[in-house]
Amino acid sequence: MLAQVTSFCEKNNILMLDMAKNYGNQRNRKYVITNRHHFEVEVFNTVLDMQIQELGNRFSEVSTSLIENMSGLNPCDSFAKFDIPKIVAFSKMYPNDFNKEERGCLAGDLSTFYHTLKEDDKFAKLTGLSDLARVMVENGKNETFPLVYRTLKLALVLPVATATVERCFSKMKLIKTDLRNRMGEEYLNNALICAVEKETFYKVKEEDVMSRFQAFKNRRGDII
Questions:
Q1: DSSP code of residue 34
Q2: How far apart are CA 218 and CA 224, in angstroms?
Q3: Which one of 1, 2, 120, 155 has the minimum C-beta count within 10 Å?
Q4: DSSP structural state of residue 118
């Protein structure tokens, strides 16, 4: 990274700080350090620790296990990272979608799936799970390997479901504040729907909303 920054500065005639020189005022420091030490220890490592702590707080142990096990479905490089034990462990985290018998059959289906598609040219240059699902449907493999396809669908839905939940909690913090802590459940649900699905509500015309309210009951005057 430092080499790229140096190259950019030299190319654009930008004054570059000498990383070997001492940092700060030497008179006010008991131990003299260089600019490189200040950047690597006091800046870079501090930011890195903050990011690691934030990721640890944001993703629980269960979420981390889900992501790790989901990676076993990776079809890149002709299924070079395809990991059957991880995929089976991933299915066990969804007890409502796989019964005991299906989980017992899944390992065998995955082995057959791997050896069948590994040599198939249609599955040779896949770049992700979405590509794998698309090619499976195009070639009818979703019907040949229904358990594998079900596992793949759960893996594809997981990021969207997680992001949706995170977005709902973020919006709820903005809507239900300390000054509005007595908000009823029904009103909160309606407000959250408007906040989360705002892209959809942007398409609704104001005239249609007023017409709907006008039709609820007879009023003294017309809204529109």
A1: B
A2: 13
A3: 1
A4: T
